[in-house]
Each structure stands twice: as structure tokens, then as C-alpha cells.
Amino acid sequence: KNEVEQSPQNLTAQEGEFITINCSYSVGISALHWLQQHPGGGIVSLFMLSSGKKKHGRLIATINIQEKHSSLHITASHPRDSAVYICAAVTGTASKLTFGTGTRLQVTL
Amino acid sequence: KAGVTQTPRYLIKTRGQQVTLSCSPISGHRSVSWYQQTPGQGLQFLFEYFSETQRNKGNFPGRFSGRQFSNSRSEMNVSTLELGDSALYLCASSLEPGFDQPQHFGDGTRLSIL
């Protein structure tokens, strides 16, 4: 079993829908990153959080350290949100980064 | 401010050769980390450098090595290439070492082994 699990693996939504991507981890962490990867490979860091909730535009990330769970929400989804979303857990003394397997999101018109 | 720059973007090599990839961090960033991404294994951490010293290393064979220069630019080298080394290699930079701070990724080098 992977230390960091994401669900769902694939997600198709229609434009305007509310989207939730989940990330759970089995080890203690000090922080968690949410990353976005578009076709072509480049990765953009969306959030880094260690508690509570963060919001940027239509994106919201939450984390519950006790329950070992984080979610990424996209409100009013748009085709340009189509990408792979990856969570990454920071473990050790901030010395190790373990990645989830990614969620491939496709938003259609 | 320029982002993280990786060169080359694409590379084709044959088995047994060696390859060197380059990563220039964002100006002022002193920490550089490297990652391998394959369809089968996903993203995996290779190593982290700070002040020209390797701080951490992932679970990869000794054929994978790296270094960091005094200007924070980093290179990684893979020797005796194998078919399984075909992957997207990404680097990321941050102001300070450790992963409990924002990471800024480059666009990657796509390495194909024939």
C-alpha cells in the first residue's frame, strides 16, 4: 500500500461542476503540497498547507492532520482546469517528499 | 523573474550511454531537488542539493548522481543508461532546504532511451 493515496484516479466533469479530489496518507506529515501538471509535463505548485484551509481563486485546499486527509476542490470548473493533480506529503524532518499517483481531470464543455 | 530552467527539453540516448541534465533555479533560490516521473512509478524523489551538498537521496541506484555549483545551478548524471531510465526528469527549486516550503518546478527534460 502506498503511503500517499489519491482518489479518484480519473475524473470527467462538465464545465461549471464542483470538483473534489482526495488525498489520504498513512504516515505523519509536516505539510502537504497540491500540484498541477498539464500535458507537456511542467508542474505548477498550487498549495502547500499544514493545517486548515487555503483558497486561491476557484481552488480550495483543506487538510485534516488528525484524519490524515486532504482535499482539493475546484469550483465552477472550466476546460482549462483539465490536468493531472498530484498531492505530495512532506515527511521526516521535512526531508522527504512522497507523491500520490495523481488524479487525471478532464473538464468538457 | 525567470522560472526554473531545465535543459535540454528532450533527449534521445541509447542503452549504455550516459547523460547529463541541467537545472537553473530561480534567482536567489539555493535549494534544488530532482525527480523522476514514469507512467509506471509516477513521481519519485531523486535527490536534494543545498549549498553544493547533497542533503537527501531517494532510493535510486548509484548510476544516478548529481551535483550543485556555487551559483546554485545543478546537474544530474545518469551513467550506463537502461531502457527503464526513459522518463521525464523534473527539478524544483526553493529558497531554503527542506520540503515544508513552496517548491517551484521546471518544465522537465524528457529522456528517451532506445
Textual characterization of the structure:
The complex is a heterodimer of chains A (109) and B (114). Chain A is mostly beta strands and 109 residues long. Helix content of chain A is 0%, strand content 61%. Chain A contains no helices and eleven strands. Chain A has strands at residues 4-7, 10-14, 19-25, 31-37, 43-49, 52-56, 59-64, 69-74, 83-91, 96-99, 103-108. In chain A, strand 9 (83-91) and strand 10 (96-99) form a beta hairpin. Chain A starts with a strand and ends with a strand. In chain B, the strands form two sheets. In chain B, strands 2, 4, 5, 6, 9, 10 and 11 form a seven-stranded mixed sheet that branches. In chain B, strands 1-3-8-7 form a four-stranded antiparallel sheet, with no helix packed on it. Chain B has 114 residues and is mainly beta.
Q: Report the largest inter-chain contact.
A: A-B, 25 and 24 residues
> In this structure, how is the largest beta sheet of chain A organized?
6 strands, mixed
The helical percent of chain B reads under 10%
Rg over CA atoms of chain B: 13 Å
Oligomer: heterodimer
**Count of helices of chain B?**
0
Please tally the helical runs of chain A, counting DSSP H or I stretches of 4 or more residues: 0
Instruction: Count the E strands of chain A.
Output: 11
Structural class of chain B: mainly beta
- N-to-C CA distance of chain A: 36 Å
Give the ordered list of helices and strands of chain B.
EEEEEEEEEEE
Task: Give the DSSP E fraction of chain A (strand runs of 2 or more residues).
Answer: over 45%
Rough outline of chain A: globular
Q: What is the percentage of strand-forming residues of chain B?
A: over 45%
Q: Helix/strand-derived class of chain A? A: mainly beta
- Overall pLDDT of chain B, averaged? 95
Overall geometric form of chain B: globular
